[in-house]
Amino acid sequence: MARYALILNGLVENIIIADDTPQVPGRTVVNLTTNQLVSLGDSYSGGIFTPRIVTDAEIRARNAVGRLIAGRTQLRTIRTQAAR
To answer: Whole-structure pTM over 0.90, yes or no?
Structure first.
């Protein structure tokens, strides 16, 4: 078993695990080493992976989701306490 990155237009489109090197039409398939950290959206050029730069908007969206989850938890706690 090995991990493979599927590259489309210079970006990591998917990461899969397979017994043998897959043949995926229109994609470059790269065998990843055990300790190689690669994520979806990373760039790939000339055999080198470059991490994707997360935009401020993505960071704000991720943080907003965390705040919503925390708010729901607090609301659940308040409702439980009020029902007693």
So the answer is: no
